[in-house]
Amino acid sequence: MVSNYALNATAKKYRPSLSSLMQLCEHNYLMLTKLLLNKNQDVEKAGDQYCFFIAEHLNYSITVKEVTRYTSLVHIVQNQPFSNDTSKNSIDKMLLPSMIIRLYHDARMAEVNSSQNIRFIKPRYDYPNKKMHLPDEKQQVNQFLKEWLQLCLQHGQVAVDLTGLAEFSLNSGNNKLIGDVD
Fold this sequence. Notes:
This protein is α+β, with helices and mostly antiparallel strands. It has a six-stranded antiparallel beta sheet. Strands 1-2 form a two-stranded antiparallel ribbon. A two-stranded antiparallel ribbon has the order 9-10. Helices cover 26% and strands 27% of the residues. It has one domain (6-177). α1 (18-36) packs parallel to α3 (137-155).
């Protein structure tokens, strides 16, 4: 993956490329809204949750935390596979990716607000720093979101809630919805 470093010739400090970050946030918005698309309602509601199963031990969930007129806040997390070893579970849980994303509906952009217990991701960090954040941490985290969303769109299978579907009549030789007219 190529990083978008724009270096100042005299200071040699990283300068964030606003245009590439905005383009990345626009791309993330399109993919995230595609994942949040619900045919039963026009817009997402706080509390909505979507699960995507990629492989046996790899699944993600997206939870809508907040919806306002112009923005939404969603939490995306990789779910932990079930294990009987509780000591391993606590360590593994710390390593699982987790992000809070703000969707700006008027600007059609999605930006990672926090990731892996980093509450606020600055556009630029001096390097080296105490927490060893990369100079382009914000760009990298949003790029990771893009790759994560692509994985969910390309390989994810959505868990379908089967409650509320019409009952099937299995008494006759053919399966049809109860209430269908011959």
